[in-house]
């Protein structure tokens, strides 16, 4: 993430005090030095409500991930119920694709990974995608 | 006396909603109602907020999402510390 120039922020309804102890008691045992990113506290779920991820019944923020570009525009979001963890590979793919699009103005077809064919939208491409892109 | 301490209850602003985004209510309805509206949408500006944070090596800080404007940001919500997944 650091290599891609991405800042990670995690958010839960736990207090920042609990974040500190979680880091010390558990995360540092899983990952040397613990997690390097800021751990934010969303007490009362007010932030989660605005992002559509606050579960009022359970009183917690469910799993929601938002990718925000340097212009502060949300580019992608993924929201899951709590039982299933996330896949960082797909997040990394999306970051690389959005960064590529931002730099080049090209667009990336489905399942694109860096190095694959990209598309340059325009009148000449209409009806011709099949010639260029062969999944 | 003036030494900075971190009390038990340090309020952070939470969502910072621009005036025009606020629902126009007739009269003095509870301000909590206003932040219930989901504002996060792809292609739209990220709703800004302020929150208390723990940062490894730096301790407790109050951070705003807009402090990170100009960089790519991954904002991750999760159900809770010390849970299983």
Secondary structure topology:
The complex is a heterodimer of chains A (135) and B (85).
Chain A: E1 6-12, H1 16-30, E2 39-41, H2 46-50, E3 54-55, E4 60-61, E5 63-68, E6 74-80, H3 88-104, H4 129-132
Parallel strand pairs in A: 1-2
Antiparallel strand pairs in A: 3-4, 5-6
Chain B: E1 14-16, H1 31-34, E2 48-55, E3 59-64, E4 72-77
Antiparallel strand pairs in B: 1-2, 2-3
What is the number of helices of chain A?
4
Averaging pLDDT over every residue of chain B, what do you get?
79
Main sheet makeup of chain B: 3 strands, antiparallel
Give Rg of chain A in angstroms.
19 Å
User: How many domains make up the 3D coordinates of chain A?
Assistant: 1
Overall pLDDT of chain A, averaged? 92
Q: What is the first-to-last residue Cα distance of chain B?
A: 44 Å
- Strand content bin of chain B: 25-35%
CATH superfamily of chain A: Glutaredoxin
N-to-C order of helices and strands of chain B = EHEEE
CATH architecture annotation of chain A: 3-Layer(aba) Sandwich
Give the radius of gyration of chain B: 16 Å
Short précis:
The complex is a heterodimer of chains A (135) and B (85). Chain A is α+β, with helices and mostly antiparallel strands and 135 residues long.
Report on the architecture of this protein.
The complex is a heterodimer of chains A (135) and B (85). Chain A has helices at residues 16-30, 46-50, 88-104, 129-132; strands spanning 6-12, 39-41, 54-55, 60-61, 63-68, 74-80. By secondary structure, chain A is of the alpha+beta class. Chain A is elongated, with a radius of gyration of 19 Å. Chain A starts with 5 loop residues before the first strand and ends with a helix. Chain B has one domain (1-85). Chain B has one helix spanning 31-34, and strands at residues 14-16, 48-55, 59-64, 72-77. Classes of the chains: A alpha+beta (135), B mainly beta (85). At the A-B interface, strand 1, helix 1, strand 2, helix 2 and strand 4 of A face strand 2, strand 3 and strand 4 of B.
């Amino acid at each position: 993430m650091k290599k891609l120039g991405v800042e990670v922020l995690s958010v839960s309804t736990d207090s920042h005090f609990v974040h500190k102890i979680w880091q010390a008691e558990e995360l540092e045992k899983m990952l040397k030095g613990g997690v390097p990113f800021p751990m934010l506290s969303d007490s009362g779920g007010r932030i989660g409500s605005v992002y559509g991820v606050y579960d009022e019944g359970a009183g917690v923020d469910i799993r929601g991930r938002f990718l925000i570009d340097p212009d502060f525009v949300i580019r992608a979001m993924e929201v899951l119920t709590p039982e299933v963890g996330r896949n960082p590979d797909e997040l990394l793919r999306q970051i690389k694709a959005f960064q590529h699009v931002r730099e080049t103005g090209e667009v990336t077809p489905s399942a694109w990974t860096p190095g694959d064919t990209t598309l340059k939208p325009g009148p000449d491409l209409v009806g011709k995608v099949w010639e260029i892109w062969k999944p | 006396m003036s030494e900075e301490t971190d009390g038990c209850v340090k309020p952070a602003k939470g969502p910072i909603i621009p005036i025009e985004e606020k629902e126009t209510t007739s009269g003095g309805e509870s301000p909590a109602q206003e932040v219930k509206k989901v504002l996060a949408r792809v292609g739209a500006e990220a709703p800004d907020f302020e929150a208390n944070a723990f940062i490894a090596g730096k301790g407790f800080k109050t951070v705003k999402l807009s402090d990170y404007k100009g960089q790519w940001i991954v904002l991750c919500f999760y159900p809770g510390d010390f849970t299983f997944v």
